[in-house]
Write a structure and sequence with these properties.
4 strands, alpha+beta
C-alpha cells in the first residue's frame, strides 16, 4: 500500500505482475547475478523483462540440460533504458531486449499496461545459509544510471566451445518451431 514504495530495513519491493510472470522467492541465482551485473534492483525491471529472464532460465534447464548460462544470455539479450511516465511514480529503469538476428526462439513478451507499477508489495529479505542463493539487493529509490554492461556484447567476441554447442542446440529448437511461449508453458505444467 501507499503512494510510493518506501521499504524499511530488510524489506524489498516486488510488483504483483512479476509473480504472474514467473518470479519466485527466494530468487533464482541467475536473476540475482543479472541484478548485480547490470546494477539493478528488482523493481527496476519491467514485467516483460521478468518474462524474458524466466523463459531463458526454463530454456536452459528444460531443453539445454544446463543451468542458466550468463555468456549465453549475453549472446541473446541486452538492456535498454525504460521509464514509466505518467504513472504514480516513474518506474522501470531498464528493459530486457532480445538481440535481433541471433537465432533465438521466436516470441517476444508483450509490454505490460501502464497500470503495472500500481500493484506492489513488500517482501522481507531472509538471509539464506547458501551463499549462492543470496537475496535481493538492498532497496534503494536512487535514480538508475545506464551502465556500459547494458550494451549488447560485441559481435567480434569469440564464443567458447560450450557456447557454440548451446547456440547450435537453440538454433535446432528454433528451426523445429519451438517458441519461447511453449517453453514457458511447459515450465509451469
Amino acid at each position: 500500500g501507499g503512494e510510493f514504495p518506501q521499504s524499511i530495513q530488510g524489506e524489498r519491493v516486488c510488483f504483483v505482475p512479476y509473480l504472474l510472470r514467473g518470479i519466485g522467492f527466494p530468487i533464482h541465482p541467475f536473476l540475482r547475478g543479472l541484478l548485480e551485473y547490470y546494477g539493478l534492483q528488482l523493481h527496476n525491471l519491467t514485467p516483460a523483462s521478468i518474462l524474458h529472464i524466466a523463459g531463458f532460465v526454463a530454456l536452459c534447464k528444460l531443453f539445454l540440460g544446463c543451468e542458466a548460462h550468463f555468456d549465453l544470455w549475453r549472446k541473446y539479450f541486452y538492456l535498454v533504458p525504460h521509464s514509466q511516465k505518467g504513472s504514480i511514480f516513474e518506474v522501470g529503469g531498464a528493459e530486457v531486449w532480445r538481440i535481433a538476428g541471433t537465432g533465438y526462439l521466436s516470441g517476444t513478451p508483450k509490454n505490460a499496461s501502464d497500470e503495472w507499477p500500481s500493484e506492489w508489495f513488500y517482501i522481507e529479505d531472509a538471509v539464506l545459509p547458501d551463499p549462492i542463493r543470496r537475496g535481493l539487493p538492498e532497496f534503494s529509490t536512487a535514480p538508475l544510471k545506464k551502465r556500459a554492461s547494458w550494451r549488447p556484447r560485441s559481435f567480434e567476441e569469440e564464443d567458447s566451445g560450450e557456447i557454440k554447442r548451446l547456440v547450435s542446440k537453440i538454433r535446432i529448437l528454433a528451426h523445429s518451431g519451438l517458441s519461447i511461449f511453449e517453453v514457458m508453458e511447459i515450465s509451469i505444467t
